[in-house]
Amino acid sequence: MSVEKFGKYLLLEKLAVGGMAEIFLAKTSGSRGVEKFVVIKRILPKYSSDPNFIEMFVEEAKLNVNLSHSNIAQIFDFGIDGSQLYIAMEHVAGKNLRQLIKQSPDSKLSIEHSLYVIIEAAKGLDCAHRSTEKSSGELLNIVHRDISPQNIMVSFEGEVKVIDFGIAKSGSDELPEVTRIQEPQDDEATKSTFHELEATKTGELKGKFTYMAPEQAIGAKVDLRTDVFCLGIVLWELLSGKRLYKCISEIKTLEKAQAAEIPELPENIPQRLKEITSKALTKSIDERYQSMGEFLKDLTIFFHQTYPAFLEQNFAEEIKSLFQNDIEATSSKLVDFSKIKVLDTDKNKEETSEDRTQVSTLSAPIPINSQVRSSERPRKRRVIRRKRKRVK
Ligand SMILES: Nc1ncnc2c1ncn2[C@@H]1O[C@H](COP(=O)(O)OP(=O)(O)O)[C@@H](O)[C@H]1O
Ligand SMILES: [Mg+2]
């Protein structure tokens, strides 16, 4: 079994690759050799080398590391190893909401379960919005700005956790001007233009057009009410079983996001729930819910009145039955990974860089305390040779 060493972590398996980062299941050792599974989000080198990006990243990470709520994946640590920025966070053994939708019968969640997921995510976001600077008590104005089904995790135990606060930042900043973009002539050009669009002058990243509030889509100022709208889009899609804005052409998607015209939800959706969803999806930022807390309150009242017999255990059982095979595969994988030893000693300090970076086997533990420059890494990184699905 071969794994890559990254600072004090062993990267065990690549879970996803996004526009900005690679996501790994990893492990590290704590005091008295207690080992812990974590997720490492390693920022791609093209961003890691931009001083503006580094500054923004560190500022962001400092805010987010203090967020602590059961509906937010906890960030444990962040830093730079060699020349690569990373965040270490709680490993949520589960699937993202997009994957859950895909696995569900007819690619739809029940109204009850849709509401449960949205309520839980809203709790995490409400906590983030209300979080304050510990020393001064001042509001941090954290806004997630990239709420989407891929950024909501559902664990195999049925917990819901918001991830990817990576582009969250204090609400006073403006997003880049996205309105200046012209539709490119061919598909390849579209791809690259829109790929570049994700990176702004300062290297700041922004959300996807399919889950953008109108103020984001026109490049205006965003605040916590932007997250209300974006979570509203996720709710609308869960209830309708359709995508709200997604078009083949990204420029059309962006135009739809700017217009923010919301089609009526299907007949089977209760009137009160339609009203709540539509208030969250109000184009005028001053007329929608003014806080996540207000949105959460209305959702919760409706939920308790309509589904008084709801049990979290039933939701967890549903998840377990949908992902039975994945759960078994994950647990046997974790057993295998547990056998790889992470040594936190200076014993092997004299080994060659090749030894340090290359391979660990079940019987050959490797040290974790040496820093490895990216130039020393073998060109072709070998992680675990296992059939893997890319989730994005
Ligand atoms: N803490 C985590 N635990 C488990 N899976 C995760 C975790 N963080 C991310 N993932 C998986 O990786 C995917 C991409 O992660 P994300 O942080 O959203 O990266 P990106 O910035 O590329 O969107 C998620 O949709 C999820 O499937
Ligand atoms: Mg994401």
Protein model, in words:
By secondary structure, this protein is an alpha+beta fold. It has 2 domains: 119 residues, Phosphorylase Kinase, domain 1; 229 residues, Transferase(Phosphotransferase) domain 1 (Transferase(Phosphotransferase), domain 1, Orthogonal Bundle). 36% of the residues lie in helices and 16% in strands. The chain is built from 13 helices and 13 strands. The protein has a 6-stranded antiparallel β-sheet. Helix 4 packs antiparallel against helix 7, helix 4 runs antiparallel to helix 10 and helix 9 packs antiparallel against helix 10. The longest helix has 20 residues. The chain starts with a strand and ends in a 25-residue tail after the last strand. The chain binds adenosine-5'-diphosphate (ADP) and magnesium ion (MG). The site of adenosine-5'-diphosphate has 21 residues, from strand 2, strand 3, strand 4 and strand 6.
Short synopsis of the structure:
The protein has 392 residues and is α+β, with helices and mostly antiparallel strands. The structure holds adenosine-5'-diphosphate and magnesium ion (MG).
The average pLDDT is: 80
Present as ligands are:
adenosine-5'-diphosphate, magnesium ion
CATH topology grouping of the largest domain: Transferase(Phosphotransferase), domain 1
Spatial shape? globular
Span between termini = 25 Å
Order of helices and strands: EEEEHHEEEHHEEEEHHHHHHHHEHE
Under the CATH scheme, the architecture of the largest domain is Orthogonal Bundle
Level of helix content? 25-40%
The main pleated sheet reads as:
6 strands, antiparallel
Give me the side-by-side strand order of the main sheet. Answer: 1-2-3-4-6-5
How many DSSP H or I helices? 13
CATH superfamily of the largest domain: Transferase(Phosphotransferase) domain 1
Q: What's the β-strand tally?
A: 13
Number of domains: 2
Q: Low-confidence stretches at least 5 residues in length (pLDDT < 50)? A: 168-207, 345-392
